[in-house]
Design brief:
This protein is α+β, with helices and mostly antiparallel strands. It has two helices and four strands, in the order αββββα. The chain has helices at 2-51, 95-102, and strands at 57-59, 65-72, 75-81, 84-89. Strands 1-2-3-4 form a four-stranded antiparallel beta sheet. A hairpin with a 2-residue loop joins strand 2 (65-72) and strand 3. The longest helix is centred in the N-terminal third of the chain and has 50 residues, at 2-51. It is rod-shaped. The mean pLDDT is 84. InterPro entries: Preprotein_translocase_YajC. It comes from Belliella aquatica. It is found in: Cell membrane. The chain crosses the membrane at residues 12-33. This is Sec translocon accessory complex subunit YajC.
Amino acid sequence: MNNFILLQAEGAGGGIMGQVFLFGSIILIMYFFMIRPQQKKQKESKNFLEAVKKGDNVVTIGGVHGKIYSIEGDTVSLELDKGLKIKVEKSAISLDFTKRANGTK
């Protein structure tokens, strides 16, 4: 009877280590499939916004297509048609739509 109780107590310790390993694995999987790609996308977007220059064809988040007419700090003037210009925030320019518009998906 005493041996049976001791054997049960030893088995419970292995279960805790298995749970810790499982929990750690879940965190690692979440990092590689959710957090890391999001950080990479933010870095690409930041680099893209810093590299835009006058004359680039861009698309805003709202779907407006235009050519950059001028850049003043965080504000960008887009020329939609001859003589038709609008001002948008630099952060409103979309990297994803710009890639699709230029055909480099």
